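Hi all, long-time lurker, first post. I run a small reading group and we've been trying to get comfortable going from sequence to structure in the token notation. Rather than ask abstract questions, I figured I'd post a concrete chain and ask someone more experienced to write out its structure so we can walk through it together at our next meeting. Sequence below, copied exactly:
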Amino acid sequence: MRSAGVAPVDDSVVRADGELIRFDIEGDRHGTRNGWLVLHSSPAFAVFGSWKTGARGTWSRHDDISPADRARIGADIDRAKAARRDQKLREQHAAQIRAQRMWDEAAVADPAHAYLVAKAISTHGVRQAGDLLLVPMRESDGRLWAIQTITPAGDKRFLRGSRKRGLYCAIGGCVGETLLVAEGFATAASVHEATGYPAACAFDAGNLEPVAIALRAKYPTARIVICADDDRATADRIGVNPGIEAATRAARAVHGAIALPEFDA
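-- Answer (accepted) --
Happy to help. Here is the structure in token form:
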């Protein structure tokens, strides 16, 4: 387990009872319990992994594992996956309750908030709690699932355990012929203000495609335009431009178009 990067903080959690054991992994935040283990005593074999990294491994006291034991290992892995799914659902629903409470208790955002002023954008329905902007993360049916917070300096955070995939913040009212999709709130607000078209904030590059697919299902005849972030600095460093690549995948998934920013040299 240590060689696979799945070392428990407390070795005493390891017990050979055939049950699914969860534990904190060395280096992880306390209480996350990303590690999992199923250890059998007779015959002695185990399967283990990390829900955070996806690492997984097996161990046996004997070189040869029987077909029956391999089947049990497969069942143990399926059990761990099911437990992970259940945990994520519980975390998402708990985060949803927190998000709804925060949203209900928040005030209308101040147009003079430092982040809005720095980005030269309007509030577009976001709310404010203290100095934090609250950007709603909704499903296509309008249901609030989570919140992104933005500090005056522009630091962004999501509620712990909250869902993100397929959620977006709608900007600009009713969808007509054309719908814009962008990564961040400021970008989505900017392209809406520049064009007049409604826009959706997908929150990051990895969520562009799930959001585009959700919007395509809701607006089957709309022209969807993915407004790409041009991550030129990243491309210069690693040879890959994640913003443009993610936007291209999203556009292809919904037979949409892609819009690229132009910069002065």
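A couple of things your group might point at:
The longest helix spans residues 67-105.
The mean pLDDT is 90.
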